[in-house]
Amino acid sequence: MIANIERFFMSPSEYLAWEEQQIYKHEYLNGEAYAMSGGTLGHNQVAVNLVAMLRSYLRGRGCKVFVNDVKVQVTIKGPYFYPDLVVTCEERDFQSQKLIRHPVLVIEILSPSTESFDRGEKFRQYRQMSSLKDYILIDPQKINVECYRLNEKDKWELTSYFAEELSNSLLVEFPCINFECPISAIYEDVEFSIG
């Protein structure tokens, strides 16, 4: 999540040094650092559900899942983002103490203040990463999961999973890690507002 509350202009190296000293996280794009906003209970519950499922599923498969405190470096010059969840299967990322550079899967849980950025510029930036195969957007306010997948022709395809009510029969797939789960598992214990 990115919120344009505080803006600071700096080089990538200045950003990395400065960010280590900050209490709150900041994403970095085009010379600017953006303070991160907080999430809702629904946002947090979706993240918890996914971490629990993916951590269990990935155990022993050579991949790891990380949550929103882990920074992803898109290129050496930036941008630097904090996705809600990121999966890497790259040994070099496992050895890193600060950055993920080779994600195969990035999941962003949407909020009204960041949705257009997550769909637009952030996704455009992430597409620079040759390792990235799946980019997932999840709406915590209604049952809607959008999976962008890099196909065999190097084209991004969208598969949307949406429903009026939770279902165990609607399976959401993350092909890059051969994972699938009922959409109801992603939204377990999420309270939706009415109206």
Automatic annotation (TrEMBL):
Superkingdom as given in the UniProt entry: Bacteria
InterPro entries per record: Nuclease_put_TT1808 (IPR012296), Restrct_endonuc-II-like (IPR011335), Uma2 (IPR008538)
Domain Putative restriction endonuclease: 13-170
Pfam family name, one: Uma2
PANTHER family linked to this entry: GLR1098 PROTEIN, RESTRICTION ENDONUCLEASE DOMAIN-CONTAINING PROTEIN-RELATED
Protein name: Putative restriction endonuclease domain-containing protein
